[in-house]
Amino acid sequence: MKLGIMQPYFFPYLGYFHLINSTDRWIVFDTAQYIRHGWMNRNRILHSNSGWQYILVPLKKHSRKAAIKNIEIAANIDWKNRILAQLLRYKKKAPYYKETINLVEESLDENESHISHLNVRVMKSVCRRLGIDFNFDIFSEMDLDIGPVEGPGDWALRILEAMGATEYLNPSGGADIFDPGKFAASGITLKIQEFQNMEYDCRHLDFVPGLSIIDVLMWNTPEEIMAHLNSET
Hints:
Strand content: 5-15%
Number of helices: 8
Helix content: 25-40%
Distance between the termini: 16 Å
Mean pLDDT: 94
Shape: globular
Oligomer: single chain
Radius of gyration: 18 Å
Number of domains: 1
Number of strands: 7
Order of helices and strands: EHEEEHHHEHEHEHH
Low-confidence stretches: none
Structural class: alpha/beta
């Protein structure tokens, strides 16, 4: 069994779904400490003039050491309509605006109280649109009996051991925290997966690599996107 383990991000970039597409099972790692100014409650889309801008989910105040699973969404701010208004910039330019805005509305339809729950909804909606099998577990709800964790790279190893997985996939950006020798000693293959950004025509706007999956969906069909993901696997 090939396993992927990542924190839940808000409409993450295409490489995130490349990793999901390459695995048999996905673990939503929601017990890690929430880090400010990351991708948990924000991402980037094209700006109407040039460059990019953030879309953002406002959060309630929380302790500095709060776990991701405990981070709540601010309920007194009309952030959903703000995001939809920002996406109007695509309306007269992007060929798949209607399909993509419907996906965003579907993802934001429920009044989720926690950012991790919202992000799981996002992942489910995007994977359904792309035709990716999203077989997932939420780590905080699994009650796994794992061995000792001595460093950040041990979390994945202990989870894989407890689940009987044989291969672990991780993006190249996080490769430094893992000890290949430990994985090999447990009979687990550690695969660091590279990803090349998908380039596409944005008509009269400049292409910016690494934006939210929203941007990719605005300009490309699911078939075109999956052709790129499968070519990278």
